[in-house]
Predict the 3D structure of the following.
Amino acid sequence: MVNNGTLSYDHDRDGTHTQLAGCEVRFRNVNFDTHISIRYENEILSVSTDMENRNEWKNCFVVQNVELPTGYYLGASATTGDLSDNHDILAIKFYDLDKNVSADEIKRRTSIVPKAKTFEPPREH
């Protein structure tokens, strides 16, 4: 979900009315580390998974036309509606992908209002 402060997360519907995209990943009760890659570059947000710690990445989703400012926050949760589970986040690594960005472009990005041009259609529960 991309939020500029005007949207609310709907716990009763697992956020499906405001999610950009999604996929099902079976993290539960595995005996090895699993990995997720979240990449944001050139207004494209993509998520990939390496579920068996083999450096074999599978696309979860790719969404274009996502605008995020600098200085944003990242959140992670294992809660889904009334259910919850234990998920240990062992590490989060950030990498700078904008090595050749001008000072004017960096300044422009600080004033972007977060938005996405599309959302995934709501699902029935």
Observations:
- The chain has one domain: 11-72+86-116.
- The longest strand covers residues 35-41.
- The two ends are 18 Å apart (CA to CA).
- The mean pLDDT is 81.
